[in-house]
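G.,

No rush on this.
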Amino acid sequence: MINLEWLRTFRAVYKTKSLSRAAEILNISQPTVSQQIATLEAYMGQKLFTRKSKGVVETNEGRLLNTLVSGSIESLEEVEHLVSLKNSKLKTIVTIGISSHLYKSMLCHQILKLGEHVHVKFGARQELIAQVEQGRLLYAIIPDEINTFDALCYPLLHQRLVLVATPDIDMSEIEAAYKRNKTKAEQLLSEHRWYAHDTASSYIKMYWLDVFNKKRPAIVPNYVIPNEYEVLFQQSKGSGLSIAVANHVVPFIKEGSLKAYRLKKLEFRKLSLIANKKKAPAETTEKMVALLSGR
């Protein structure tokens, strides 16, 4: 396979008509230039330059090769120049890994403030952590905290679980019953339709365990939709209850389609930003932590 460096050296010699001048431009030694030209000529089986006392002159084959490669080599040199610039746009691409659930409830509201070039990848927690460690992603937003050799971890915020109801449901009776008689509160809750984002109803089980001290929930979800945000959207179009992360509900509360209640203060998890230790720019990291943590 032909080496692109050979062609780059060929192009420099062709333009300068001098091996020594080409060496200066390419910042390599003259013997290296001579060797690369000789290797290219041997590969092609054609003489590309004729050596003269004051430089070189291209052959017919040399002129033909220049016609074929000049545009491509110049394009590559332009790309190299853009990449090397301190303010290169290619250097300011922010790559972020996140779950689709968190994207809709968290990142989508801030993405326009993170820069002009932001690339988002959806994935599971362990997959995203691995890609940050490998440098394939600069950042990832994940539940909990981690400590690894290749990634730095920055706490963002705590998430809490809340009981979410549509406006047509009178929650005052349920709240009053919870304070006096939890069994009565369970009964009232079970009389309504329920929405969940997975078939295992992990949020509901966790809520029932911490709020009612029961291992099994007293209800079975009527509607199961595999996305935390979409569950709330669907609930807002109907009637019923769900368990959700508090900050996921905020957009729906603002529009008046859902309401959130806390029968008991319940912390769910912490969110963290992890950054590739070598590649993530410190200034960008500080900006992201400030925006995503609400500081």
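When you get to it, here's the other one too:
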Amino acid sequence: MNKEKINSISLCSMIIPLCCSTFYGIFSSFVLDTAKTDTFISMILGYIISIIISTIILKLFSFRTKECIQEKVIFAFGKISPIINTLIILLSMVIYIFISYRLVSFLSSQYLIRTNKNLIYALTLFITYNTAKRGIEVTTRVSTISVYISLFLYLFVLFGLFKEINFENFLPIITSNKKDILISSLIFSIYFTVPIFYINIVKKNDLVDSKKFNKYFYITHMFTFLLVFFAIMLTLGVYGINLSKIFDYPIYTVLYKIRISTFIDSVENILVIFWLLCSINASNIILLFIFNSINKSFNFKDKTKGILKYISLIIIFIIPTFLYQNNNYLESFDYIVIPFLIAATLILISFITFIILIIKKYIKSY
């Protein structure tokens, strides 16, 4: 890990797939159903909250720059650090499952109906494993290339949908319950922020231009929000709230509108490529983080660490295989709760770690 050098743009490029991957499945339906025509208000409020949370994560990343997050946890928590690092690994495994299995569920229901879902998931796990095991340089390089391709596809779709918008679908505004708007904002902020935790996959000192990172981070963070914001708002503008909130995959379904007025058939498949690239790259990054955590968190022999990595892969495969066979649960809003609690716990650990590091630095200075 110490020999691998990447630049700030490459690391920041990971923010786009990490953040976008959680929104193209059930979460977009949840936001639309909860805040309705006030969705834009809830997303803007959620983004403001996410800036505050992201700043804390960024401060954690910028603190003790010669150490990775696992080493910071060891310094902060001392003897109980193996428990904390194990918890972070387990939480990351659940987030990996949430992102990758949502994609698998979509592909299975829309394209590969006759293919066993477990086979699709096994293939996804194999692809992400083969990328993650090659290290951070390869992972960020793949992510950067995928981002450029994804943005081209996104702009193509955006251009095709704009003329289909009915601005009356955004009205009336400020009619939803304030509680619903706040709940939607809070959940939006958590889902949008927690993936940013994985910038801690490297030490800040490993960046060849570490002084530029904060600037690139905030630019990419805002740009990613705009991608999500426009995708959901375009869906609302084209279909209206009554139709948008009943679709399992509203951002995907809305692309059927383009086919009516263009010479290109099946434009909806373009966004599938965007979602596929985002989800696969996000899964690559999280799986690499899990592997690095195993390497840095425990004083085991290399052979034992290798076995633990394979065990983690088996667990990642087995959990959804047994728990998520009923696809109806994946499509229900109840499914939102589990990854939300996992994400909130990961953010809480980040906050506590940062506070302890600050306190220890303060005590040491006296």
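Confidence is low (pLDDT under 50) at residues 258-267. The CA atoms of residues 23 and 227 lie 10 Å apart.

Enjoy the weekend,
O.
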